[in-house]
Amino acid sequence: MRSFRSVAQGGWFRLALLLSLCVTSISATAEPPDWTGEWNSFWRSGRALMLLNQEGDRVFGFYEPGNGRIEGKVEGSLLTATWEQSGGSGTAVFALAPDGQSFTGRYSNGEYWNGARVTESDPGGPRFLNLESPRDTLNAVVTAANDAVIRGNAASVIAYEPVLFYEGGAVDERERLRRRTLLWRIVNLSTFRFDQAPSEADGDWEAFAIGPSGSDQRYQLRFRKREDGKWQVVVETESELEGHVARLLDDLGYDTFEDQRRAEVNSPRQTMKDFLLGMKDWGLGGSERALATLDLSFLPENLRDIEGPIVADYLKQILDRAGFVTWQEIPNDPDRAVPYIHYRHPVGNIAIVAKEVEEGEPPQWLFSAESLEQAPDLFDAVQDLPLAQGLHLDQPVSDFFRMREGLRDISPFLVKRDLIMENWIWAAMLIGLVLALVLARLAGWLITWLMTKLFVRDEGSFEAGDAKRFDWPVRLLVAGFLLRTLFVELGLAQSGFSAFTTAVGVVSIIGATLVVYLLAGAIGGHFLKRAQATQGYADEIVTSLVTGLAKLTIVIVGAIACADIIGLPYLGIITGLGVGGVALAFAARETVSNLLGGALLMADRPFSRGDLIETEGQWATIENVGLRSTRLRTFDDSILIIPNAQLSEKAIVNWGKRRRRKIQLEIGLTYDTPRDKLDRFVERLREIYEEQPRADKTECYVGLKSFGASSIDIHLWGYFKVYGYDAQVRAQHALIGDIIDLAKEIGVSFAFPTRTLHIAEGEDSRLNH
């Protein structure tokens, strides 16, 4: 009953939850989406700021530039609307995203029209315009135009479009766009300071001469006072503007505006653009663009990729507090003779200088190494200054700065620089050092235990003492790696501790090299032990050779890695190793010859382990073939070591490679043996030989050979199909035993050496006298 009741209660609960979700869903879908607000919209050939207001299912609004009007009806998430502006009209449909922060749209001709809601955190462009004087108007127009063209903020178009006065009128939006573009090209070709523009005017018209840096040509930028007392920038006719652009380009030595833009790529202005726009799009590929503008030569080369984002954050934070960056105030002359100082401060300056990056190439304009090196101190001096009106603080691109700003919000004391570095870095260093030492000791013990379990065997080549050799190398590796990672993340290179960071990196590389070196030796010893258990020696040579080459490679790679961290030109080290290798090979040519001799023995394989060989009168059994020499054991149980170079050049008789072994016997019978018994003995002797299990019947020679000193000699010459000497002894033993039985069977006797003395009588008589 309890079970049924609990199930029923659970079912009622799930049903109630389902109903509540349905009601919530129905109520949510019943409420129409809200289109009210500002929208930063764009299409294939332009952009505009839309201001919409929704009343029920009806939406009304306008957009600029173009003085456009839009009206439509909402059905669900769709807005079907008509639009109208000077020069055209049409229809469009928009779909609001579920979060209400963006829409996807399309014109009736199929072209897209998308947009995103403008929020307080992302205003999209300046919301203030000071038009009280020609100077203020010029500042407002250029600032808004820079924001619209460079940063892509359509809302900024609203800020400067009403401030432009089109002389002679304009037919439609397309003509206004072309005239704005031409005027913008003149402004962009010029270099000027806003404080040089007129701040006061006696009448309703004023002019300001602008032009390219390093050129005498000038363009009179004119201003007109409106009826309300505000000033506007005068935009001349299209033909007049085209003439001015052509005149300025010709004086600069360029045929087209595109040629000038390509030349401007290497200039202080473009360097500033690349940095700021790269920082803006950091996660979308802008990081490389921004870092390419920084002279990081004051940092160790191996730390530049890691410390570069921290340096970029320092510079960006300083520039934000220095105020608006206006491109037209920055020189765009690639051949400028002096550095460009963008920001001056008693602690340090922000300068862009021309630096020779590659020999034979023109100097490249970069933020100077001195400015970037002083950036932490300069940031400390300006960080409390609020940002200029209209600027908002971007999120840092490095973990270091995000961590620092978070700690600064907790307590300003943590980011205070009392002793070389900020206080939070000292605390993190102390904690990290203790943690690294503890983890390093634990890692050393763990690796030693694992190596003991994996490699140590009762009869193995790797013993418990060898496993303990991994302890300190693993400690160095783990401690160095943890400390280097921590110190790099803390930005110690920017705090004057680059040498310490480098030293920690070298320690970690040394530890890693020792660990891999010992591991290669352990693995090589394991396979060498297995190779020694086989009859062939080729595996043994290959294992020794591969292990030796692996160890040498590990040492070389470790040395190169250390050189890279220290900042040494390791390409020179590699070249030195090549030259030194030649010299070493010449000095140790005998050792090299032995190595080559071992390779030849491995390739030819004239013998195997355990083979009995004869070389220059020496009989011995092969025990081991190494890289430098071959070890043999002679019949008197002594060790004979022959260098491989000598052994490979000598004649080698390998008795161990015989397919059969020769048997050669001389059997002597007494001279009183009758002829018939001799014939029967020889005939039966052949039969006995052929009856032997290991006898080679294809080649056998048996017969009377000669008259010996005390016997009639019978010759037996044949082969036994045996491979070892012990098998030959056993086979020969059986044959001789059968021959003895044969002699008894036939009734013949084996002769043995005898001598008969004959004494003459004459000699005997004289003796008696």
Would you kindly provide a written description of the structure presented here, covering whatever features stand out?
This protein is α+β, with helices and mostly antiparallel strands and 769 residues long. Helix content is 47%, strand content 19%. Strand 14 and strand 15 (364-367) form a beta hairpin. Helix 17 runs antiparallel to helix 18. The longest helix has 35 residues, at 498-532. The protein starts with a helix and ends with a helix.
Question: How does the helix and strand content classify structurally?
Answer: alpha+beta
Oligomer: single chain
Radius of gyration over C-alpha positions, nearest whole angstrom? 49 Å
Count of extended strands: 23
Features:
alpha+beta; five-stranded antiparallel beta sheet
List the helices and strands and how they pair.
Blueprint: H1 2-30, E1 37-43, E2 46-55, E3 58-64, E4 68-75, E5 78-85, E6 88-96, E7 102-107, E8 113-117, H2 134-149, H3 155-160, E9 164-166, H4 173-189, E10 205-210, E11 219-225, E12 231-235, H5 238-252, H6 257-264, H7 268-280, H8 286-291, H9 304-322, E13 340-343, E14 350-355, E15 364-367, H10 369-373, H11 375-382, H12 399-410, H13 423-455, H14 464-468, H15 471-489, H16 498-532, H17 538-566, H18 570-587, H19 589-604, E16 612-615, E17 618-625, E18 629-634, E19 639-643, H20 644-649, E20 653-654, E21 661-669, H21 675-691, E22 701-707, E23 712-720, H22 725-746, H23 761-768
Parallel strand pairs: 9-12
Antiparallel strand pairs: 1-2, 1-8, 2-3, 3-4, 4-5, 5-6, 6-7, 7-8, 10-11, 11-12, 13-14, 14-15, 16-17, 16-20, 17-18, 18-19, 21-23, 22-23
